[in-house]
Design goal:
Largest sheet: 2 strands, antiparallel
Strand content: 5-15%
Shape: flat
Radius of gyration: 12 Å
CATH architecture: 3-Layer(aba) Sandwich
Number of strands: 2
CATH topology: Pyruvate-ferredoxin Oxidoreductase, domain 3
CATH class: Alpha Beta
């Protein structure tokens, strides 16, 4: 069992309650479907494409991903 405070991470990184990005990072982390570095690289490319004119959105989401990868905790 793993836990993450996605609300806290999204508020810290984005200033708003958007838990989807932290939750995505948590799922990828615990499932080991790709490395942290692969996730960050792939998501940065995706964000740059989708939010090309909103660099603050890219920065906030990348921060949310990075924080979430560090905040995922195994309970038992």
């Amino acid at each position: 069992i793993y836990t993450i405070d996605a609300r806290k991470v999204s508020m810290e990184a984005l200033g708003k309650y958007f838990p989807n990005t932290p939750m995505l990072a948590a799922i990828v982390k615990v499932s080991n479907i790709m490395t942290d570095e692969e996730l960050l690289n792939d998501m940065e490319a995706s964000f740059k494409h989708k939010f090309a004119k909103k660099p603050e959105v890219i920065e906030g989401n990348m921060k949310a991903l990075s924080l979430a990868l560090k905040e995922v905790k195994k309970v038992q």
